Known about the structure:
This protein is mostly helical. Among the domains are: 89-260, no CATH class; 299-381, no CATH class. It has 16 helices and five strands. It has helices at 27-30, 39-46, 88-106, 111-128, 137-145, 154-177, 180-189, 203-211, 217-222, 228-241, 265-277, 283-288, 291-310, 319-350, 355-362, 366-375; strands spanning 34-36, 53-55, 62-63, 68-70, 81-83. Helix 13 (291-310) runs antiparallel to helix 14 (319-350).
Amino acid sequence: MPVWGLDDEKLTAxxxxxxxxxxxxxxxxxxxxxxxxxxxxxxxxxxxxxxxVRYAQRWERVCVxxxxxxxxxDADQALEHLDLRxxxxxxxxxxxxAQVARRAGRAGVEPGEVFGVAYAVVCRWWDxxxxxxxxxxxxxxxxxxxxxxxxxxxxxxxxxxxxxAVFPEVVEVARALLDPVMAELAWQxxxxxxxxxxxxxxxxxxxxxERVGRRWLGPLAAxxxxxxxxxxxxxxxxxxxxxxxPRGHRDELWWVRRELQPTSMAAQLRALTKEAKLPGSGTVxxxxxxxxxxxxxxxxxxxxEEQLIQLRGAQRGSSAEAAERLLKGLGCSIxxxxxxxxxxxxxxxxxxxxxxxxxxxxxxxxxxxAEVLGAGSGTVR
Length: 381
């Protein structure tokens, strides 16, 4: 793409010098992601219904006139848009975003930075939501965007519809993060001048859950250690205390570490394609076990792994403090692994595997296997 008008030291050399007079740039990195345009709008202006693409941020993907969400154009998939006529809240969210952007400007913050943090927070929730029994809104939106039922193509639709389905919550979270009242709640939850660990029943996460229409979400969001929301709260608290920035962090409130940034639709679809092509990649398992349960098992294992990784830095302080942190962390990891065992056992049995075989694989007697299933009766479906 042309680079004139953009400051770049590579372009400041005088004519005839040894330094280059032009430079390549990736358009998506400079201007933003590339999305399809609305064919109906193009036809209205030009008289021809043709495919077009344009640079479009994720907060400007709704064609209000025709009720469409315009999809990423770099994902190598056939769909150009999703129908929003049954989901007016998504159209309304784009209209509300204009107010959030103006508020960010008044606060001296780039709207795109605020959106980036909120987007990371809500996409993290989307990844975890498959194990949230109280979540009803996103599954309904996913199936509506898929034309009524995602059916056997659940994982592809989950990748394609994510940004659309979560958009109203992203806008609301962005609004909340800009609210000084919410920042004060985070400060009070941290103990203010008397530092303490963030509580699971903290006022900040409880209020945030209510703002996105999920009163039950607060305690779940508060214990998502290592997620982008806790990282943002940590930045707010450090600023108030004037504390040093941890190694590997930038001293910026509106910054999301690379590992916490959501995976793009294109990357998700490539991963699905790669998995499908791998020999022995679990085709029978995928066909026999519901995608929601497979995702739940995967999330439980990821959570256990994350808890164990965090324990590497827990051996500090007095012996009693370090032992307490280690034991609590190990207990949490063991609990997640036990849940994963219960879900996997139940999935295998529902898929038709003999009880004796499942018990042997799990290293349990049939009676012990029955106890495991009984202990998880609240989660096994």
